[in-house]
Amino acid sequence: MTVSLTYFGVHLVFVLPPLLVLGWLARRRDRAWWGARPLSGLGIMIGLAVVYTTPLTNLLIPEGVWWYGDGAVVATVWHTPIEEYLFFVLQPILTAFWLFQVPATADRSLAIPLAHRLVGIAGGLSIAGVGWLLTGDTSTYYLGWLMLWAGPILAVQWGFGLTYLWTVRRPLAVAIAIPTIYLWIVDRIAIGLGVWVISDAHTIGYAPLGLPIEEALFFLVTNAFIVQGLVMYVWLLDRMHELPSLDGVTNRLAASSDER
């Protein structure tokens, strides 16, 4: 059966309108983030999203974890529809433009305790480890790969800035939650219309309001990647003066060499 809404139609109806409105508001509102700093960070996030997500979809689609309705996509590159690659670009923009409305910032030094960094790294790697174990069973295959895929990124982000992220946890939670809930709704509508179909065999079978928990987790972790990455990127730029200058490093190396 041919679907009534195509994947490209999902972008036109559900993704582009809020994206354009949020971008317009960010440019006009004095208190919103805009300009070279957040936009350059967004560019980095888009590049990382495309590079890091492409192998995952091209692994899971041929395994039958999900597929697309008849006539839902225009064409595929590798195993992934071009509309999916487009979503790798549009989702970071949508989520970032919402973050720009509620920027999460705090006056905190880059020097955070080593123990906090280790906890962050261990937390991310633990998620990846559990995911690796879950990939061995068919019913937890999708969930396992999501956790295995997400864990290393979370380890890097939490290892760098867990303390700072906790400091700005309230605006951070709002920045992650709103686009996540919105994309849950869009995903549920698309599933209901048959734009894409999630495999019963490769999921654990828990689907609140018809949305598989694996799909919900995907949007949660990807939005967390985007928001946490941008928040820490701006934090790093704001605190660049704390980093040792190249001249200072050179002088210290020279002094050490003279002493020897």
TrEMBL record:
UniProt GO MF annotations: lycopene beta cyclase activity
Pathway(s) where this gene product acts: Carotenoid biosynthesis
Topological type in the membrane: Multi-pass membrane protein
Compartments reported by the entry: Membrane
UniProt key word Isomerase: yes
A cellular-component GO term for this protein: membrane
Presence of the UniProt keyword S-adenosyl-L-methionine in the record: no
GO terms under biological process: carotenoid biosynthetic process
Protein name per UniProt: Lycopene cyclase domain-containing protein
Organism listed in the record: Halosolutus amylolyticus
